[in-house]
Amino acid sequence: MNTMNAYGFIGVLGVVLGIIKEVLIIFLLVKGIKVANVYLQQNENKKIDNGEVEE
């Protein structure tokens, strides 16, 4: 019976860690999109007609 409890605990721990991992991935994706939007907005005015970026 003791090993069955250990396997149950490991299973629950795996599910909880999986959920935490997914939430963390979503959080990092949202933060990355926000950073990309800020970068694009700052560099929007530096474009030339042919698509190159001014230095």
List keywords for this structure.
single chain, 55 residues, mainly alpha, 1 helix, rod-shaped
Tell me about this structure.
This protein has 1 helix and no strands. It has 55 residues and is mainly α. The chain is rod-shaped and about 70 Å long. The model has no long low-confidence stretch (mean pLDDT 85).
Mean pLDDT: 85
Helix share bin: over 70%
Poorly predicted ranges = none
Task: Figure out the total of helices.
Answer: 1
Main beta-sheet strand count, sense and barrel state: none
Terminal Cα span:
70 Å
Number of strands: 0
Instruction: Give the count of structural domains.
Output: 1
Describe the structure concisely:
The protein has 55 residues and is mainly alpha-helical. The protein has one helix at 2-42. The protein has one domain.
Helix/strand layout:
Elements: H1 2-42
